[in-house]
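User: These chains co-purify. Model them together.
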Amino acid sequence: MILSKKTRYAIVALTRLAKEYGKGPIQIKEIAVGEKIPQNFLENILLELRKMGILGSKLGKAGGYFLLKKPDEVNLAEIVRHFEGTIALMYCVSEKAYQPCEFCRDEASCNIRKVFKEVRDTSYDILKRTTLDSLIIRD
Amino acid sequence: MILSKKTRYAIVALTRLAKEYGKGPIQIKEIAVGEKIPQNFLENILLELRKMGILGSKLGKAGGYFLLKKPDEVNLAEIVRHFEGTIALMYCVSEKAYQPCEFCRDEASCNIRKVFKEVRDTSYDILKRTTLDSLIIRD
DNA sequence: TATAATGTCTACTGATTTAGTGAACAAAAT
DNA sequence: ATTTTGTTCACTAAATCAGTAGACATTATA
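Assistant: Joint model of the four components:
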């Protein structure tokens, strides 16, 4: 059930970029060293976040990454969903990765499904209302 | 985030055994065929559940598996936790697989941790109060 | 008592996913 | 021009997943 390192790195890196929001591009190296993330791996992750439209980048010397959206416009549900494939624990209750159940005859009356639907929905609600700005620690 | 097949098979097999509670041993083959689970794989799973103390078995001809506990005494939290290792999405909020956070200085003030603690706690509550008897479909 | 039908246990395996690495390339500042 | 950065693609070692296979132990029953 533990999130992949990729997902965890993404959340930490985004929180860092939210903290520096408005300060222009931050270099990969600075995030990698500061947040203890392998730099090559972090490059792939930031690239994915850029393709998702969450990050922008500046090329060349004095380049780097920065948040395109405002910190309160990026929620954890979309991050987890993108890197994990889905929020749900069973395909039959997933929004993004739905597949018909391989066991039950009728999903509407399946009690196993009901439970995991409830787990998905409550988890989704928590992640959805958590935006990057609420993750920043201001000392 | 999807549960492994092992975990899903375990839940389905246990629900079946709960349905047949009190009827004596049910053969692996009957469960395998009825619930569409590969028999060899199911053998491993039922063996694990026996070692957990949830199932009992009868050897030899006319043997099989049966629930040792009453269906309302087996909850999904213990099943998921056993087969997935933990309920939590981050080690730093896990009861069973706790490890100190690799990123934050102070877990008590980490906001990322707070969110995933809430996700873990609510998921745990739902799974904990769901027992096998509530999963049986009676037609 | 022989035999057939079951569970037990250990080891093995192919496929997939995870967690990266490496290198050639492109763009921008100086 | 040179240096510093991000971009892209290909590759890989290790771990996990999803089973299989086979020898063995136990029990019912004919």
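The radius of gyration of chain A is 18 Å.
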